[in-house]
Amino acid sequence: MSKKSITIKYRKRLIPLSIFLFFSISLSAQKKQIESIPGNALPAWYSKSFFGLHLRTSVLPKAKIEKLSGSYFLSPKPNISYSCGFRYTRNLKPELSLVSGIDLKFTKLNFYVYVPASDIPTIPRAFPNTPIVDYTEAHFQIAIPFLIERRFELDEKGFWAVRAGGNINYNGFNLDGRVGWSVTDINGQGVSIYSGDFEYTNGYKPWITFVAAAGKNLVLSNKNILGFELGIEAGKNGYVSGDYVITIPNKPASYGIYKINGFSAGLTVSYTFTGANKKLAKKYISK
After folding, report:
1. DSSP code of 70?
2. Contact present, 265 and 227 (Cβ < 8 Å)
3. Least trusted range by pLDDT, from 16-30, 126-140, 196-210, 258-272
4. Are the C-beta atoms of 165 and 18 separated by less than 8 Å?
5. What is the pLDDT, as a whole number, of residue 40?
């Protein structure tokens, strides 16, 4: 069996194993959750459902570059994703919830091509050591999460929580197409340096990613919740893939493949409206 096939099998097993560990930790802590609430009374911030908003920043791995031929190739930079959205949480009990909602994601992709000035003397550059191609673009995506959340160490000040589940993703709002880059030579003529055919849409089909996260939630004086969460997302489908060619005058063309996989890790900050203040106010008025 090849090293590559062993690595693929290991990655396929890693995702469900991570989710299993999250649930194992949360289940083992369930007794502590109930004991931390005096008399098993419900905490003041608890209600049957929550509504929340969140912001997330994620880091994607650098693109995988497969060089097919030639002396030049794309050089990847770190890619960043930003997302915002809302969450609806249905609480089955204080320590167990079902979570869904919608996310809007914006993913920034970038790469560059470095060619020594001596290899292309007909192209003037103010700084010879700078890349001759420096490309950045952003893409839009929506995701609908379906998650299970378990909480532990509950009290009136807050709790810890773990989440696991999946996202249904769709990015067919983007357009597949060709990306080109030209520069001007010393004679004022345009010279094509780079072109690539990229797919940004996953064939206009939705796909599923697996999600796992853990974080700390603080109950504020108004009984709403401020949360901080670290999480990962992984899936088979990539964010973008394509073929490219680099054409330097008087040099053989360089061909390659560019691909970013579906893994990301990030930090989420959330604000959850529990409705507990209204509940307490009604209870006080009724007295």
Report:
1. S
2. no
3. 16-30
4. no
5. 54
DSSP state for residue 31 in the 8-state scheme: H
Distance CA(5)–CA(36), nearest Å, equals 47
Quote the strand ranges of the chain, DSSP E: 49-60, 64-69, 75-76, 79-93, 96-113, 133-155, 158-170, 177-184, 190-199, 207-219, 225-234, 240-246, 254-260, 264-273
Mean pLDDT for the chain overall:
82
DSSP, res 121: T
Residue 259's closest CA among 285, 231, 236? Answer: 236
3-state secondary structure 247-264: CCCCCCCEEEEEEECCCE
d(CA 195, CA 184): 16
Count of CA atoms in the C-beta half-sphere (13 A) of 90 = 7
Token pair of 14 as six digits: 């890693």
Q: Where are the domains of the chain?
A: 3-286
Q: Note whether 270 and 101 are within 8 A (CB).
A: no
pLDDT recorded at residue 24: 53
Which residue has better confidence, 182 or 40?
182
User: pLDDT band at 232, cuts 50/70/90?
Assistant: very high
- One-letter amino acid at 115 equals V
Instruction: Say how far apart CA 276 and CA 222 lie, in whole Å.
Output: 8
User: Tokens in use for 52?
Assistant: 């929340």
pLDDT digits (tens, 9 = 90+) for 154-176: 999 999 999 999 999 998 887 77
pLDDT confidence of 39, banded at 50, 70, 90? very low
d(CA 79, CA 62): 6
